[in-house]
Structure prediction request, 394 residues.
Amino acid sequence: ISNDLYPNASLPPERKDSGVPYVRQGLHVESYNDFDPLRHVIVGIADNQHIPEACPASNEKIPAGSPMRGGKAGRRTQESIERANECLNGFAKILEDRNIIVDRPGAVDWHERITTPDFSISSGFGVMPPRDCLLTMGKSMLMAPMSFRSRYFEYLAYVDLMREYFESDPNCMIEQAPRPRLSDDSFRMDYVAAYEYLSDAETMERSLRKEYSTKETDILFDAADVMRLGKDIFVQHGLTTNLAGIRWIKRKYESQGYRVHTLSFEDNHPIHIDATFCPLRPGLMLLNPNRPLFKGQREIFEKNDWEIVEAVSPAWDNPPALCYSSTWLSMNTLILDHKTVCVEASETGQMEQFDKLGFDVIPVDLRDAYAFGGGLHCATADVWREGTCEDYFP
Ligand code: NVA
Prediction:
């Protein structure tokens, strides 16, 4: 946009607060998978995190008997926030010491009640985990249409960074998926009402029938339900991603030459694929032994000579207090390249398994940040990995 009428149109705009232009030299946005050499990543922060009151989408993901069920709304304690930040900052430092660029999201104060014309909820959630909110697909970064009401405005924490990426890399595109309404019409409210009384066996039955509290009214997906393997994109159907969401992903990315596949696992709380089925390097997948793939879904991997190994058991019998996730965060790791992996430091069995699979293992102390939204993969979002868009499943 540059002609005589607009002499300044090619200058990057300035940030309101500091006046520093939105440009960083050498910045590059591109990533096609979770295992090529990592060059630039976002690591979440624990500041201002709240436990929001339960919403129709959130209760269903919490196992029966968990203290998180029903929600104990309010700000997380300052002590737990500081400890989680100590973990996240330590993780960021490990990555920076390996010359990986690390960005942190902006802090948003979620204290106020969130009200839209369609719903109202006690507070927002936090600025963790970035993996749920941001989907880097090639040279584009997309903000996902998440199903938790408390996370409706979470993208605000990334707006400044996205703007900087957009101005600094002329090939980078920043995008936002259609915004959902998340009104009561978006959910099976009768399921939501009954959920509190259902056992894990009953929720499993419902999950096997592919019935979740989210309806098909909105287009919904979390970026963490999307697994990128070069030209092939695998999306988990479950609590946080509905079929309309998968259809949207398919239509958008297939028009760009990707192939989109739906994946389903025997799991009564199918949410986020990255503690269930994780790519480790070309030709190797790690599968949660408690969440087998549905019949027929191994074929594409086996036909293309990919090996699927089962993850060893987690080191812990229970997740930490006030954590939404399962103990399987043990297999939620960050791969730095085809032979280097960051694993949570207390997960000794998982570290040994990676060692046997030929990886150099970097232990990272992160368990005290789990309650803030997950493990090492959850806590990050790719900005740049070296490598190109390979066809692993020709
Ligand atoms: N469903 C997952 C989410 C982890 C990222 C779990 O095992 O809790």
User: Anything to note?
Assistant: The longest helix spans residues 78-97. The domain at 38-385 is CATH 3.75.10.10 (L-arginine/glycine Amidinotransferase; Chain A). The pocket of norvaline is lined by residues 269, 271-272, 274-275, 325-326, 328-329, 332, 374, 378 (CB under 6 Å). The chain has one domain: 38-385.
